[in-house]
């Protein structure tokens, strides 16, 4: 059998899946940038105590990242499961 | 207060539980019921060895000193896990497909199975891990000390060294028991992993319990905790951007390159899909571990007397509030953190040491190399056991030398930066096909040396390995070589300084070395298999057929895999090749699979070296590759030829089939023809016989006799005519007819034909329309035959024209080199469906025998005309039956024209 040429346009489902895996790749970058935001506040130079506030921010971002990863991993793994039967044959 | 003896008893009981759990898990795995053991939960929990005693005790101390900065150590790994799709997924896939046994094996395997690289990575890992193990021993010893001193403030146990020794010894025994039971493929240790998962739960529960106690038991509520944070010495967040970014990145690098993390994340991974769960569950674990760190730190700072060691707040806070059981739980949590890290680190390091240092040395110094029979397996296991003991001994010695003085966090970070030196080579291994072994070696050595010089050696303090003078003024007074201010970079703090210079020079050397050197073919193959691991199954094709004898290979494999397993592997391979017995053909595929199997036990470099001793001269060279390439080219050409040939065959077969069909059809026609002829001949014969019998009757009157004789004669004439026709047809059809070509006037020929045909049904009078003038033209042909055709056509008209007043029109026309003669009557004509039939033999439209012919007339006409180079055709739409005779002016002239 000759190899099929790569289709120009993907079926809607595969397209969605590709974009989700793009999102999974971008997520750590987004997280990194969000964790860098406190630097812009210059907490060391402001007179007000910021440890409490900063802590809440860091943990909130952290938690949201976990939720997003959870969602993405579920969707990506569902797709993989759905693909598996014909993938194996 | 918990008495010290009870503490020791609880500790021993806990270790016993771990033993039982590990033992039970091994048993289950052996019986093949390891399903539950291979769940994503266990996998995620086993990753928690990232959180060592450094986390458990040290994070609080870190927070008490530097506020929120401690969190960077957990943000880095969280980001790596969140980005699992991008990096970890590929790493785990490579680890599984190449049967990688350690991080040193990964690097060595990728860069051409070079053992040198394996040795370098092993050395870095051992040097970096030693202080880390010492740190664990120190923390356990310190926590024992808290209980032994009887007061929360003190941690001075009279015989600290003895405690550390006991702990190190116990851990060595546990690790040797469960870590070196087998040289299993892919180095999975179910017992150890399960025990670690249990420890992960214990330490999480312990830390959460202390945190909950501190927040709701001591402070009262979160609001109160926030109030205390604002009132504490760490209220103002002294965020240093460089450290914040740098530490996050270093910890992210470390989670990938720490040998123990690699062990649990890649080597012990039994299913890639476990990563999906770990991707969010492990960051969640880290978040929970660090959630109460700041509250514990600030409450500890405010409640405990000044001067208390903040590294022990997790223990001393519950003790200060007389919560013995909670303190005990916290102690077990810390104990778990320390032991699990030490166990896995020792296994990972021992695997690396034995695979990359001991076994290659043993092979090199042994007479006869791997060819000599011997128990390699025993050697490997022994070397691992010795390595485990040796690594723990190193840790212990470091602990005794350093005197347990440095803060926990500092030691941890030094180790992190050390192993992070592997990162550039690792990234190159996975994402850059152009990365070469020389580049990797250059980068690793550069990074390692810079790290040693700028961070590791200064960490021993000013009285340590580097003198005060060197630290302050640089070696030999060269100020720009000062260990903590290379090239005059004094602005950075020592840690970041080391991170920056070691990683920068490391990466630079790695990239430059890769760009300038040329990889070996094996490196390029491995690079392809690593970088494109998702695109195709790796085909190394590293071995060509030769040298290796299956029997020798079996003998060697038995020494490594164990007799039973090796025999089973060889038998399965032989069966797959369709052979009975234990000795498969030593095909390149088989040798490659064997190598990978062996790599699962002794590492890829060693396995490659061992196989290489058998397959003498069979290792891939560039020439071999070229040969393989041209061979492939030849095969492709050959297959193209085959394809062309098979197409030709198919075409011939199709032609044969067509010919066969035609023959079959002809045979059917022939049968039909024969039966027709028989029928036509029998009819006159029957009447001749009948009348001749009557004639034999002597009483027959004379007139009757004469009449019957006439009938017999008529029938005989008809029979003769039929036979003549048949002969004629046969001659004509075979194109063997002798043509008597003459010149004649067409008008004369038509006259002759009309005269002759007049005898047919002479009772009918026909009106003949002719255009005499047009008929006068010369024809150059066999005139007799042509007249025969005309006669036939005119007779047919006379016979079959059913008009009341029959008329016949004869038209002659000349068309360039052809002459057309039309014979048109005014009868009913021939029905359309029959028009194609009339020229066939024995075709008669009506069943009447009035024509007296056998139905061969038109068939003969057609054959004559074909022989004369012309044709005869039915001309529809002329108001009656119409036939057009076409003939060339001169036979053969048409072709010339």
Automatic annotation (TrEMBL), chain A:
The chain crosses the membrane at residues 20-42, 54-76. It comes from the Bacteria. Keywords: Membrane, Transmembrane, Transmembrane helix. This is DUF3311 domain-containing protein. It comes from Albidovulum marisflavi.
């Amino acid at each position: 059998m000759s190899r099929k040429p790569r289709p120009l346009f993907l079926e809607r489902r595969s397209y969605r899946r590709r974009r989700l895996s793009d999102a999974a790749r971008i997520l750590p970058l987004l997280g990194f940038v969000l964790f860098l935001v406190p630097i812009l506040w210059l907490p060391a130079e402001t007179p007000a105590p910021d440890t409490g506030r900063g802590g809440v921010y860091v943990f909130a971002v952290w938690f949201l990242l976990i939720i997003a990863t959870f969602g993405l991993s579920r969707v990506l793994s569902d797709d993989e499961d759905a693909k598996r039967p014909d993938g194996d044959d | 207060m918990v008495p010290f003896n009870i503490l020791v008893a609880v500790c021993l009981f806990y270790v016993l539980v771990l033993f039982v759990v590990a033992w039970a898990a091994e048993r289950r795995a052996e019986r093949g019921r390891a399903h539950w053991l291979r769940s994503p939960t266990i996998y995620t929990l086993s990753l928690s060895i990232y959180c060592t005693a450094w986390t458990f005790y040290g994070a609080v101390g870190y927070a008490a000193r530097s506020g929120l900065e401690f969190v960077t150590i957990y943000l880095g790994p969280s980001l790596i896990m969140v980005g699992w799709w991008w990096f970890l997924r590929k790493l785990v896939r490579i680890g599984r497909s190449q049967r990688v046994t350690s991080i040193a094996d990964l690097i060595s395997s990728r860069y051409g199975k070079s053992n040198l690289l394996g040795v370098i990575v092993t050395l870095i890992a051992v040097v970096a891990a030693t202080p880390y193990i010492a740190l664990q021993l120190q923390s356990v010893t310190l926590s024992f000390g808290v209980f032994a001193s009887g007061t929360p403030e003190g941690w001075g146990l009279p015989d600290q060294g003895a405690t550390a020794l006991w702990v190190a010894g116990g851990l060595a025994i546990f690790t040797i028991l469960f870590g070196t039971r087998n040289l299993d493929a892919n180095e999975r240790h179910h017992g150890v992993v399960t025990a670690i998962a249990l420890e992960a739960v214990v330490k999480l529960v312990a830390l959460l319990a202390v945190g909950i106690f501190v927040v709701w038991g001591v402070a009262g509520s979160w609001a109160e905790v926030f109030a205390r944070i604002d009132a504490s010495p760490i209220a103002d967040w002294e965020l240093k951007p460089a450290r914040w970014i740098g530490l996050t990145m270093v910890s992210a690098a470390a989670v990938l390159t720490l040998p123990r993390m690699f062990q649990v994340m890649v080597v012990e991974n039994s299913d890639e899909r476990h990563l999906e769960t770990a991707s969010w569950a492990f960051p969640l674990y880290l978040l929970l571990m660090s959630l109460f760190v700041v509250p514990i730190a600030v409450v500890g700072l405010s409640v405990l007397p000044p001067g208390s060691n903040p590294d022990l707040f997790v223990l001393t806070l519950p003790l200060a509030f007389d919560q013995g059981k909670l303190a005990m739980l916290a102690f077990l949590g810390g104990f778990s953190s320390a032991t699990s890290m030490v166990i896995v680190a020792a296994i990972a390091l021992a695997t690396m040491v034995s695979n990359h240092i001991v076994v290659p040395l043993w092979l090199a110094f042994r007479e006869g190399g791997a060819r000599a029979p011997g128990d390699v397996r025993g050697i490997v296991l022994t070397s691992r056991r010795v390595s485990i003991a040796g690594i723990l001994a190193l840790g212990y010695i470091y602990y005794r030398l350093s005197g347990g003085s440095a803060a926990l966090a500092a030691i941890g970070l030094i180790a992190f930066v050390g192993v992070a030196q592997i990162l550039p080579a690792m990234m190159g291994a996975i994402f850059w096909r152009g990365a070469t072994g020389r580049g990797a070696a250059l980068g690793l050595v550069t990074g390692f040396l810079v790290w040693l010089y700028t961070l590791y050696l200064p960490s021993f303090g000013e009285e340590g390995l580097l003198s005060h003078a060197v630290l302050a003024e640089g070696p030999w007074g060269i100020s720009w070589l000062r260990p903590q201010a290379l090239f005059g970079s004094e602005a950075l703090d020592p840690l970041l300084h080391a991170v920056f210079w070691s990683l920068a020079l490391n990466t630079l050397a790695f990239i430059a070395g890769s760009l300038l050197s040329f990889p070996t073919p094996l490196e390029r193959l491995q690079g392809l298999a690593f970088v494109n691991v998702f695109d195709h199954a790796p085909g190394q094709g590293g071995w060509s057929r030769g040298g290796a004898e299956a029997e020798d290979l079996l003998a060697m494999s038995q020494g490594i895999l164990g007799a039973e397993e090796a025999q089973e592997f060889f038998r399965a391979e032989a069966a797959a090749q369709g052979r009975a017995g234990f000795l498969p053909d030593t095909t390149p595929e088989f040798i490659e699979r064997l190598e990978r199997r062996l790599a699962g036990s002794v590492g890829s470099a060693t396995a490659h070296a061992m196989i290489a001793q058998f397959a003498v001269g069979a290792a891939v060279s560039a020439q071999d590759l070229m040969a393989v390439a041209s061979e492939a080219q030849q095969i492709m050409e050959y297959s193209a030829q085959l394809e062309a040939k098979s197409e030709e065959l198919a075409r011939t077969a199709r032609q044969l089939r067509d010919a066969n069909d035609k023959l079959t059809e002809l045979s059917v026609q022939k049968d039909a023809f024969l039966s027709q002829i028989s029928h036509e001949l029998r009819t006159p014969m029957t009447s001749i016989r009948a009348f001749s019998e009557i004639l034999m009757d002597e009483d027959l009157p004379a007139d009757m006799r004469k009449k019957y004789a006439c009938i017999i004669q008529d029938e005989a004439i008809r029979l003769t005519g039929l036979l003549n026709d048949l002969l004629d047809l046969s001659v004509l059809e075979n194109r063997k007819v002798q043509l008597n070509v003459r010149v004649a006037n067409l008008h004369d020929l038509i006259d002759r034909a009309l005269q002759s045909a007049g005898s047919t049904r002479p009772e009918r009078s026909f009106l003949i329309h002719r255009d005499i003038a047009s008929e006068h033209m010369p024809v150059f042909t066999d005139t007799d035959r042509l007249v025969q055709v005309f006669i036939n056509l005119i007779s047919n008209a006379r016979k079959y024209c059913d008009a009341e007043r029959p008329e016949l029109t004869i038209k002659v026309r000349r068309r360039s080199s052809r002459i057309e003669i039309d014979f048109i009557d005014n009868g009913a004509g021939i029905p359309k469906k029959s028009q194609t039939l009339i020229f066939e033999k024995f075709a008669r439209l009506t069943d009447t025998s009035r024509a007296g012919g056998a139905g061969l007339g038109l068939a003969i006409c057609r054959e004559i005309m074909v022989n004369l180079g012309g044709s005869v055709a039915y001309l529809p739409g002329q108001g009656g039956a119409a036939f057009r005779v076409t003939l060339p002016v001169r036979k053969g002239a048409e072709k010339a024209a």
